[in-house]
Amino acid sequence: MLQKLSISNYALIDDLEIVFDKGLNIMTGETGAGKSIVLGALSLILGQRAESRYFFNQQKKCIIEGLFKIEAFHLKTFFEENDLDYEVETVLRREISADGKSRAFINDTPVNLTILKTLGEKLIDIHSQHATLEINNPLFQLMVVDAAAGHQPLLDNHRTKFSQYKKDNNRLKKLIEESNKAKADLDYYQFQFDELEKATLIEDEQEKLEKELYTLNNAEEIKRNLLNAGFLLQDSETAVLLQLREAMNQLVSAAKFNADIELLRERLNSTVIELKDVVAEIENIEQRTFTDEARADEINNRLTIIYNLQKKHRVSSNSELLALQADLSDKIQHAVFGDEAIEKLQKQLVEQRKELEGLAAKLSAGRTKAIPEIEKQVLQNLAEMGMANSALSINLTDTALEKDGANAVRFLFSANKGHALAEMSKVASGGELSRLMLAIKALIAKYTALPTIIFDEIDTGVSGEVANRVGIIMEQLAQNLQVITITHLPQIASKGKAHYYVYKDDSSTATYTRIKQLSNNERVTEIAKMLSGDNPGESALKNAKELLAI
Q: Measured between alpha carbons, how far is 4 from 66 in angstroms, rounded to an integer?
């Protein structure tokens, strides 16, 4: 429900805040006072286009903000899908600059107008006598029937299973396409796979071979350097080891005079032992190092095979070639055994469709059963609103299987006796459509949570007791959802839980649209004025009190 609406810098409104009741909200005021301006501002946070020429002050931006309580509408999935923060109390905001630039926000997160409009339509339904809105939409008509049938869990189950069925159907098409392509390319895939398999590739082989070849190509230099290092460490007249041994002997002689020198001798001895090990390792590597042209040729041949394969397949490592080999293996397997997977999925789809057809049949039976009661209740409501000669027929036809089952719904209507039934937009006036919508909404509000509905002058063309009955039905409707109505009829105005008076303020240098919530005494006066004019007498005031049950 709409808890609060804030409007800044729009038309005749400089700054305005309205707190709405959860039930029936009445909005009255003189023609031209600005009631429709309020609805125009509200439409901006529902994603409608904005024009800066409607700004109160062309130097400032227009800001419209609505606070909604949304926990009854099961919208968490919508927020998750659009990466939005879900809040039980959600704020929709629209900012329009004087240069025409517009920004939209949901809970302070920037969104595009499409997302704002999609969410807004789930929260607010503005209905005027000049707009048929969704009443002629087949999806809305089907929703009416489903709501009255009371089979939402069954419908949700069908939608979930149908979504999976569609995904599996698409997967089957893709499998068939891939299988056909794989069969056409099988020989080519097999040739490439055999070539790679024959190469018996090892993931880190290339790096090891390149290091070994580098060593072989530089064996003579390596051997010469190792011999020189060993000579300097051990065999020359000034060999490092000879020098260290002599130094160690000197420390032995001095150690008897100072215990700390013995520690130094031990450390030097450890160094000598380590250097002996180094010399032994140098000799070992030197003996293993030799020129092997045959091995170098072997490595060169192997690397040539690897490099050629990498160049052919435009990769730079054996790991990429092995990944390609695995992919080719999968494609060959798919070409050879793909028909088995296709056949398995086809059987699965047959079972899924059979289950869906069973669910669709149950949905169809529930709809068929609900239709007579819908027709009866809607016509009863219309009769109470002065349309006793109305006729309504809801036709249910079979269709191809879709997410909502296998039915199409079509509402045929006539507002006058003796006239043929036809689509509602072709045989009903704006006022009649408004009352028809009210009758339908009063019915489905008993079964499901509906967005806030706003009626803009639904009372056109009615008066007296009919107007009173329209007000009563609005009052009943507001027990299940929030209703906001703009009216000129006292019979309807008297039914509201909250009454807002819209007026023009000319007290300063500019004209402003203002709105205030009326107290009980102020409501008596306002309704009396609606009954008899600006200066109501005692009888009008008495009549107003009777309407308000005061």
A: 6
Q: What is the pLDDT of residue 455?
A: 84
Q: Kindly give the residue spans of alpha helices, DSSP state H, lying in 124-151.
A: 138-149
Distance (Å, whole) CA 184 – CA 419: 65
Please list the alpha-helical segments (H only) found in 82-137: 113-123
Separation CA 158–CA 154 (nearest Å): 6
Over residues 22-29, the mean pLDDT reads 92
Give SS3 for 105. strand
Q: Which helix (H) or strand (E) holds 523?
A: helix 520-532
Q: What's the pLDDT tens digit per position in 281-324?
A: 998 988 888 888 899 899 999 999 999 999 999 998 999 999 99
Sheet of 89-96, strands arranged across: 13-19, 2-10, 62-69, 89-96, 102-106, 109-111
Between CA 188 and CA 481 the distance in angstroms is 67
Q: How far apart are CA 487 and CA 466, in angstroms?
A: 14
71/230 Cα distance (integer angstroms)? 85
Taking the C-alpha atoms of residue 515 and residue 107, their distance in angstroms, rounded to an integer, is 26
Percent of the chain at pLDDT above 70?
Answer: 96
Strands 109-111 and 498-505: unpaired
pLDDT category, 133, cuts 50, 70, 90? low
Asked if residues 475 and 455 have their Cβ atoms less than 8 Å apart, the reply is no
CA atoms of 248 and 242, how far apart (whole Å): 10
pLDDT digits (tens, 9 = 90+) for 222-267: 989 999 998 999 888 888 998 998 898 888 888 888 888 888 888 9
**Cβ contacts of 122 within 8 Å, gap of 6 or more:** 73, 75, 78, 451
Please give the pLDDT value at position 24. Answer: 93
* pTM for the full predicted model: 0.62
Q: Which domains does the chain have, with CATH numbers?
A: 1-129+450-518 (3.40.50.300), 151-364 (no CATH)
Statement: residue 130 has pLDDT above 60: no
Q: CA-to-CA distance for 101 and 226, rounded, in angstroms?
A: 78
Among residues 486, 550, 483, 503, the alpha carbon closest in space to that of 523 is found at: 550
Beta carbons of 456 and 448 less than 8 angstroms apart: no
Least-confidence region, from 58-72, 149-163, 284-298, 325-339? 325-339
Contact 383, 413 (CB under 8 A): no
Structure tokens at 540: 């009008």
**Contacts with 212 (C-beta within 8 Å, 6 or more apart), sequence order:** 295, 299
CA angle at 385 for the pair 381 and 389, rounded to the nearest 5°: 80
> Does residue 52 carry a pLDDT above 60?
no
d(CA 254, CA 275): 24
Q: Which of 96, 94, 76 is nearest to 86 (CA)?
A: 76
